[in-house]
Amino acid sequence: MMDAVRAVLVNWFELSDIQSVDSIASGLSGAAVFRVTTMHGSTWALKRYPLHTSLSRVDQIHHVMITANENGCDLVPQLKRCGGVDAAADNRSAVDDGQYVWELAQWIAGQPWREPASGIDLLASDRAVVTNLTAGVAIDAESDRQRHEVMKRGASAIALFHRSVRSLGNHTQPPPCVLARQKRLKELSLRMDALLASDLTRIEHPHLRFSLQMAIERFRADWNRLVGPFTGTLATLSHQPVETQIVLGDVHAEHIFFTDSSDDDAGEGRSVVGIIDYDAVRVDAPATDLARWISSFLGQCTDVHLAWHSVLAGYRLESSLDEKQEVLAKGIVHLSAWINLANWASWLLLDNQIFSYDDEHIAQRIDQWIRVIDKLGK
Question: Which residue numbers delimit the Aminoglycoside phosphotransferase domain (predicted)?
Answer without folding.
Answer: 24-294
